[in-house]
Design brief:
Multidrug-efflux Transporter Regulator, Chain: A, Domain 2; mainly alpha; single chain
Length: 119
């Protein structure tokens, strides 16, 4: 696998995640913001350009899912990452072949967190 296949630029990652501004262009500032908030996202920076590994992209996909689709707060996702390191266990996510399997696991984790909050 070549370097270009292993790593994606921030613009390509924004497209992969479906992050677009009102004009349909990649919304890269969201990724940079998440990078500041979630220290588990560690792109390689070469000549002032960010390059994201497949592992980083998987983490970003899961963060987006929790924030945008599950309605969690940034603080809630941070707590989840701190409590459940499997969320950032890249090898585990790489072995799961279907996005649905990931979402089922995240739904269960989200329900557990809500139950803990209610207790």
């Amino acid at each position: 696998m070549s370097y270009n296949q292993k790593y994606k630029t921030i613009g390509k990652v924004a497209v992969l995640l479906g992050l677009k501004n009102s004009k349909g262009k990649p919304n890269t500032h969201t990724i940079r913001f998440w990078e500041q908030e979630f220290k588990v996202i560690k792109p390689k920076i070469i000549n002032s350009r960010r390059y994201y590994s497949l592992e980083n992209i998987d983490i970003l996909k899961n963060i987006k899912y929790l924030l945008k689709e599950k309605g969690m707060t940034i603080k809630g996702v941070k707590n989840l990452i701190n409590k459940d390191q499997s969320l950032v266990d890249v090898k585990e996510f790489m072995n799961i072949k279907k996005t649905q399997d990931i979402r089922i696991k995240l739904d269960k984790i989200s329900k557990l967190i809500k139950e803990l909050k209610n207790n």
